[in-house]
Amino acid sequence: MSSILCIGAGYVGGPTMAVIAKNCPQHRVVVVDANAERIAAWNSARLPIYEPGLDQVIAQARGRNLFFRTDTEAQIAAADIIFVSVNTPTKTFGEGAGRAANLQYWERAARQILEHSRTPKIVVEKSTLPVRTAEAMERILNSQPGRGVHFDVISNPEFLAEGSAIHDLEHPDRVLIGGKSTPSGRAAVEQIVAIYESWVPRERIITTNLWSGELAKLAANAFLAQRISSINAISALCERTGADITEVAHAIGTDSRIGPRFLRASVGFGGSCFRKDILNLVYLCEHHGLPEVAAYWEQVVLMNEYQQRRFGSVMLEAMFNTVAGKRIALFGAAFKANTGDTRESPALNVCRELLDERAELVITDPYALDNARADLGAAAERVEFEPDPYKAAQGAHAIAILTEWQQFAELDYEAIYRDMVKPAFIFDGRNILDHAQLHRLGFNVYAIGKPPLAHFD
Ligand code: NAD
Ligand code: UGA
After folding, report:
1. pLDDT (tens digit per residue) in 165-196
2. pTM surpassing 0.85?
3. What CATH number labels 3-200?
4. Do 403 and 333 contact (CB within 8 A), yes or no?
5. Could you tell me the fold of the domain covering 217-457?
6. What is the pLDDT of residues 276-289, one digit of tens each?
7. CA distances from residue 79 to 71, 194, 328, 429 in whole angstroms, order as listed
8. Is 363 left (phi over 0), alpha (psi -120 to 50) or beta?
9. Residue range(s) in the chain whose domain bears CATH number 3.40.50.720
10. CA of 10 to the centre of ligand 1 (A)
11. Which ligand does the CA of 156 lie closest to?
């Protein structure tokens, strides 16, 4: 039996530790966070994040061998294994601002571990970090050799996607564990392998050296985002030529060397990590004197920004080059379906763009309205938040589909059309609607990567 601690009870720390606790009843798992409100929510009936299946896993393990606490110092002292799952956002100040990772939360956690440890610990990097951060972690942890406490640092990046986190954790494609090849480093790797082996087949657990572990995480996100930017780049050409992005993506994705996933053209990728991790990769390449490699990856982010701007421009142009004073209903605020998370959501970027054009906006979303209001800050005062999509669309000139919620595909668009200002427009940023049917109902339909279906030239 081990005592496992996780510092950081966010989108990763909470679900990851819940699944470890569920599958390893022999271990005691504690999750701490500096944010007491968040911990209180983890201990309540209303969890701080929306994630399908999470409620059930928490119900099984919480109070049995899973505990959410705020007494970080005492929990550090009691732990054998400490996962560090704190946020690593993009730096907004000083050197590397806008690119490099802000490591202040990570370093604070490292120093807390050093200060409150009296027994040997395995420290596991769960956060996504720049390559060679483990080296800095070791330097901090071993900065007081007189204390006689030994630390092993392991890289165990997380690959879960929000909205499918529980499934991804229960049935991962792989678990990656990077460590040192010293005897104690190898023993530490084996201890972490043993945790995952409780439910993950051994052949899916990959062990590497520390730097490969750290870099593989950044590279995996860069590759995934690159596929989206690639298909989105082709979507722009589709709109100019009459080709249809769904047909093109299907034709590309049936090549078994390419595969069909992550080829859905969209209003752009969002989420807290793709942009941040690619910019971090770009910064690392620049730092290591590789400007061509940096420029190559930066283009994935630039293409994503272009796609979001382009979507707003298509709306403006279709609506006779002015949306000032027009009510527009934005369907979706979350960065993807099945999450309430709005971090880096393309929906909010489109929202800001339309506010600049002085549109009157109403946003509807089944789970993300509170986060949207908080993320929009002062701009939220100029936006209406309406949980009912039918009410949101009432009296609107246009609807923009910005999140691929299944609910939005199942609405009665005939009824919605009736209550809209004519000519009525619909802009499908996720290609989830039946465009021919909407056109028959009277809508002017503009979808990503498809020829427009308008009732006028
Ligand atoms: P998050 O912001 O939701 O959670 C981080 C938590 O850490 C916050 O609640 C914060 O209060 C807490 N924290 C920070 N410093 C602390 C300290 N010293 N002591 C105690 N608590 C502290 O972030 P997240 O989305 O869970 O991401 C965490 C890391 O995992 C990031 O590095 C991210 O890149 C990576 N990651 C995220 C996802 C995802 O889907 N969100 C997936 C894979 C990897
Ligand atoms: C992503 C990765 O998929 C995870 O493996 C990784 O662990 C995580 O980032 C992370 O490091 O944070 P996540 O951002 O939660 O997970 O969700 P994705 O399913 O990857 O979607 C990201 C964005 O891309 C969303 O806005 C989504 O709508 C968009 N997307 C995705 C597309 O536009 N088209 C697609 O074909 C797929």
Report:
1. 999 999 999 999 999 999 999 999 999 999 99
2. yes
3. 3.40.50.720
4. yes
5. Rossmann fold (3.40.50)
6. 999 999 999 999 99
7. 12, 17, 53, 47
8. beta
9. 3-200, 217-457
10. 5
11. 1
